[in-house]
Specification:
two-stranded antiparallel ribbon
Length: 361
Amino acid sequence: MMFIFLFHQQYYHGTNGFMSDMLMHIEFFKTGKNLYSLTYVCLGLLNMLPNPGDCIAVYQTALLLLGVFATKKLLQFLMPHKDKWIVWVYAWMCNMFFKIIIPLIPFVGTFRYEVILNFNVYHNPTYIAMKPFAILSVYYFLTFIKTYHTKRISVKQWLIFTGLMLLTTAFKPNFIVGFSLAVLCVLIIDFFRHKGKNILNYIIVGTAVLPSIGLTLFQQSKVFDDSSHLRIGFMTALNAMNQYSLITIFLSMVFPLAILAYCFRDVVKDKFYAFGVLQMVTNLAITFFVYEDGWRLNHGNFLWSSYFAVGIFCAVSMYKHNKLVEKNNKGAVIITSAILGAHVMGWLNYVFDLLNGGRPF
């Protein structure tokens, strides 16, 4: 209910507190300007219904809940023998993940999202729509790498995987680049590890990302003009947005980094955990080195993929946290649980601030 209220307020009071990108995206649909996202079409059509603010609020809340369900499905795959209600708790915790707030540090102690790697974004409808389908894309890929060196991938599986990535990209194009790079790395490593067995499966999985890459290139052609271009430079955009960018990024992922400190050997032993780490690394590389110049410099549009990646990094860290519990590693469980609690407290404060009309950006 609280998110229905938040999105309702964003629609009716978005120009005076409760700020978001919602009204701008609706305007894109009305004018046809920058109309490259399926989100704009969904919002535009809902805006034509009676009580449009209510309809859009329910639509976006439903997408948030679908994201929780997708997270639960992913975690249940990673923890197949865990009681489903415990998995639900892990899934909700993953969707209550936010930067640890340290009030004494300027800017870092605020809720503003610049350079925060925040899995849970409530001011951007394209990200809200993208998130559940991106999680399901990761889930399907992990099911493939579990058996694709021994079991043939069916046409139906390929179509579902390809369709999920296309739908994700149609809502927001940022996901597919970092994801496809991580997929490529896994395919190359597994190909040599299994000595080229079932090579057709590697080709099938690899080609599944191509339609989404093609769609991304089309979307980029709609976004860029002569006033803004893609550039390469280390932390250029991050430093333009936030002088405390490195510590802000660190505070956005303390829990998964703490789990990594305890489970670093599993990066080479556990392919599911390794993929979560690899996707985080590839997306951080994009975030650190790729930026847009001109008027879009401080928009941070290459942060979005890292927003999602930190969520998957958190999800696979929840999976390893459960392993620490099963091993009865009390010290590690207490420390990492306390850190996770600090992240959730940050989320609670952030959401409370948004519900009171605070600025997300």
